[in-house]
Amino acid sequence: MTEVVVIGGGIAGAAVALELVERGVAVNVVDAERPGAAATGASAGMLAPQYESPGRSPLFDLLVQSRDHFPDFAARLEALSGHSLPVRWPGMLVANVSAEETEAARDAVRWQEEAGQPSEIVSPEEADGLQSGINQGVDSFVWLPREGLVDSQALAEVLPEALTATDVRLITGRQVVEIMRSAGRVSGVRLADGRSLDADVVVVAAGAWSDGIKGLPRSLPVKPVRGHLLRFPPGEAPLQRVLASHAGRYIVPRDDGSMLAGSTMDYVGFDRSLSEEGMKTVHRSATELLPALATAEAVERWADLRPISTDGLPVIGPDPEVKGLHYATGYGRNGILLAPLAGRVVAELITEGASPTDWRPFSADRL
Q1: What is the domain count for the chain?
Q2: Phi and psi angles of residue 286, each rounded to the nearest 5 degrees, phi first
Q3: What is the CATH number of the domain that holds 108?
Q4: How far apart, in whole angstroms, are the C-alpha atoms of residue 45 and residue 253?
Q5: Is the pTM of this model over 0.90?
Q6: pLDDT one-digit tens code per residue, 230-249
């Protein structure tokens, strides 16, 4: 039986592990923390390939496929864990604050419609019919009816339970410091305490920490980017849609009526601490979308690190030189959305040597 070590127990690594164990592979997931405890549980959980997409591209097509794949993945996690995982498809309203943004949005609406993804420009008055209380002082909104979200904090709780319900071996509180190689292929991993694990295949799914592992044949262009999120209590008018701006800020509803507002893009290395300026930026941006939040106090605040590659693309699939080494990292701001489909692709490549999904644009060959 093939023995696999997956480095990282966030959604990227967990998705690979679940796909592999379903195919009869022996899987070890090693994580320095509890699976899902870092970027996975700290995210807003948006399932929104159309938002922020600069144009039709292989990445856009992959993200749309990922959105279509997500309900099946969530259902599998629920069945394995025995717990509910709230997934909603409320659609998204993106504010165009100026005539220039509206004009640029018209181009996006055109190519997205041509790609078969519904998108339209609506007036502030029409947008208010979709979500009361939104800022009426902007020029217009883009309405994206297919965009959705998952409760990522619930996801972080469900992931380890789903993994435990399978034959996956979870090794938590242990850090992989080195990938061991012999005769041009991987032979296992070494842990920070000096112990080692033998493996036929190693999958690097360590998020923002992926490039720091010794023994990689090349540097991975994946860097940590800090993001802040604030949770606000339920307001008088419940938030029904995802609200967002072209500045990368957003507000998402939760089933309990609370709202998560994010996020910043802070290039501060591996600093996961909260910054006063970051929290103020998120609160100010949230108020610009939903003015009622101007007087609201956040009841929870946190920050964590996204793994963002220098070219904006994920790194998926086998290493071109080292046999048995695979990547599932660099998912950026779309980590929750992308991980389930990317996990299936990586598992197919490991067990079958091919995948029907077009993964080549994201291959490590480009590095």
Answers
A1: 2
A2: -65, -40
A3: 3.30.9.10
A4: 10
A5: yes
A6: 999 998 778 999 999 999 99
